[in-house]
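Task: sequence design from structure.
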C-alpha cells in the first residue's frame, strides 16, 4: 500500500483526468504522536504532494480557529466559499487562496469509523466558472470512498508511532514485522550503554515533584539526543536510568561503534555541563550522572507473560554495563568502560586498575576517558 503522499498524488491526477477542474487539495489527518497534532498533505496541480507537520496546540491558534477546516470538522458538514465574494470577516486562508488565483473552495469532513477528530479534506479550483454542482457531488463522493483507505493509513501510522515511541525505531520495526512471540529472540553482539543520574532518590525527597519531573525529562532528552547523534538506540528507561545499545552487525565494525559510543558519552558530558551552568544561574543544584560501557553477546528478544511482553536484551553483558555505571561514583569519573570495550576501541583510554563488580566473580580492569 503506497504512503499517503503517493496515494493522494495518484488519486488526484486521476480526478483531473475526469474533467473536474481541480487546482488545489488538502487532506488533514489527526495523529497519535508525542509531538505532532496532525499531518497535512497539500497537492497543487502539476506539483508533488507537500507534507506539513502540525505541532500540538495548532487548534488554539488563528491558523485553525474560525477556519473552514474547523467548521467542517466540528460541524460535520460541507463548507463552501465562492472566493470572489469574501468579506473582511472571512478567514485569512480564504483570502490567501483568492490572492493565489483561487475561485471556488470547499471543505468537508471525512467520516471514518475510528474515534477522535475527523480528517478534513478541502478542494479549490482556479476555473473562472468554479465547481459545478456535479463537481461538488463527485468530490463529496470521492471523499466518502477515500475513507476506507485513509483509515488504513491512520491505523498504520498509529501502530508505527506507538511502536517507535515506546520501543524505538529498530525494536519497533521488529515487533511490527512479527517478532512478538514470547521466548523468540536472537543472539547479537553489541556495544551496551547504561547511564544513571546520581542521587536521584535524594532529589525526589528534596525537590517538588514538578521540578523533579522537569529535571528528569530534560536529562533524558540530553541522553537521547547524544545517543541518536551517534547511532545508539534506547532500549528502555528504568526510572532515571537509560539502557541503550549500539548495534554491531559484524566484529569488524566494533572499533567504529565503540568510537561512536564514546562520542555519545563526550557529547552528553558537554551538554550536561552547559545545562548545569544554566541551573547554577537559577540557584539549582547540578545534575550528576554516570555511564557504563561494555561490549558483549546478548539475547535480543521477548520476555514476559503470555499476553504482556517486553522486548529487551538479557545476558551477563547487560549486568556488566549496569555494574560499570555503578562504579563511576566510587571511582569519581563520569564514564567506566570494560576491558572488552577498550580492547576493540581505537580511542586511547585510561586504565583505573582492577576492581570487583557486584555479581562478577573475579576483579575486572576498568577504563575511562583520557584526561
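Answer:
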Amino acid at each position: 500500500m503506497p504512503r499517503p503522499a503517493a496515494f493522494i498524488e495518484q488519486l488526484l491526477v486521476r480526478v483531473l483526468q475526469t474533467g473536474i477542474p481541480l487546482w488545489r487539495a488538502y487532506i488533514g489527518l489527526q495523529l497519535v504522536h508525542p509531538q505532532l497534532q496532525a499531518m497535512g498533505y497539500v497537492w497543487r496541480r502539476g506539483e508533488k504532494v507537500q507534507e506539513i507537520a502540525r505541532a500540538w496546540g495548532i487548534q488554539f491558534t488563528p491558523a485553525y480557529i474560525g477556519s473552514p477546516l474547523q467548521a467542517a470538522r466540528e460541524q460535520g458538514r460541507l463548507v463552501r466559499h465562492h472566493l470572489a465574494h469574501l468579506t473582511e470577516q472571512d478567514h485569512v486562508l480564504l483570502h490567501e487562496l483568492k490572492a493565489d488565483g483561487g475561485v471556488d473552495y470547499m471543505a468537508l469532513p471525512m467520516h471514518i469509523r475510528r474515534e477522535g477528530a475527523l480528517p478534513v479534506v478541502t478542494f479549490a479550483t482556479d476555473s473562472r466558472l468554479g465547481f459545478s454542482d456535479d463537481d461538488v457531488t463527485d468530490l463529496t463522493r470521492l471523499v466518502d470512498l477515500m475513507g476506507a483507505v485513509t483509515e488504513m493509513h491512520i491505523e498504520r501510522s498509529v501502530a508505527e508511532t506507538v511502536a517507535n515511541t515506546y520501543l524505538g525505531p529498530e525494536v519497533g520495526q521488529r515487533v511490527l514485522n512479527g517478532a512478538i512471540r514470547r521466548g523468540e529472540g536472537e543472539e547479537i553482539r553489541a556495544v551496551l550503554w547504561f547511564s544513571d543520574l546520581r542521587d536521584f532518590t535524594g532529589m525526589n525527597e528534596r525537590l517538588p515533584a514538578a521540578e523533579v519531573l522537569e529535571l528528569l525529562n530534560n536529562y533524558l532528552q540530553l541522553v537521547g539526543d547524544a545517543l541518536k547523534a551517534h547511532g545508539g538506540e534506547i532500549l528502555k528507561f528504568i526510572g532515571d536510568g537509560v539502557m541503550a545499545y549500539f548495534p554491531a552487525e559484524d566484529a569488524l565494525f566494533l572499533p567504529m561503534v565503540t568510537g561512536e559510543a564514546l562520542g555519545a558519552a563526550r557529547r552528553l558530558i558537554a551538554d550536561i555541563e552547559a545545562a548545569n551552568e544554566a541551573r547554577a544561574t537559577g540557584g539549582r543544584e547540578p545534575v550528576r550522572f554516570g555511564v557504563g560501557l561494555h561490549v558483549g553477546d546478548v539475547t535480543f528478544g521477548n520476555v514476559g507473560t503470555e499476553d504482556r511482553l517486553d522486548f529487551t536484551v538479557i545476558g551477563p553483558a547487560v549486568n556488566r554495563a549496569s555494574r560499570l555505571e555503578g562504579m563511576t561514583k566510587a571511582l569519581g569519573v563520569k564514564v567506566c568502560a570494560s576491558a572488552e570495550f577498550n580492547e576493540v576501541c581505537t580511542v586511547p583510554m585510561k586504565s583505573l586498575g582492577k576492581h570487583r563488580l557486584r555479581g562478577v566473580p573475579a576483579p575486572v580492569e576498568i577504563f575511562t576517558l583520557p584526561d
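Residues 4-167 form a domain with the Beta-Lactamase fold (CATH 3.30.450.40).
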